[in-house]
Amino acid sequence: MAQTLTLTPAAAKRIALIAQKQTKPAILRLSVEGGGCSGFQYKFDLAEGADGDDCVSETDGVKLVVDPVSLDLVGGSVVDFVESLGGAAFRVENPNAAAGCGCGSSFGI
Asked: Which PANTHER family match (predicted)?
């Protein structure tokens, strides 16, 4: 696919740890839903597998899957896991986002 996604090694490591604790495959599904303070919000879930039309990216044996509709909004993004004094969270660096909120969980186009 022309639109690529990147999963950083830090994010892959965290997903692998969560998946192991929940005895699930190390597959993170990123999707976009309407809502949030900027119009769209990211949703993260562990998935059992990829659907046939999903875009799939793999880092260190961990897969990131995104459906075609969400891919239109997050294509070219980098998914990272960051830890700071304020907490730990997955962060999406989305080149398509024209606006975002302070918490980083929603964006606008």
From this structure: IRON-SULFUR CLUSTER ASSEMBLY 2 HOMOLOG, MITOCHONDRIAL (PTHR43011:SF1)
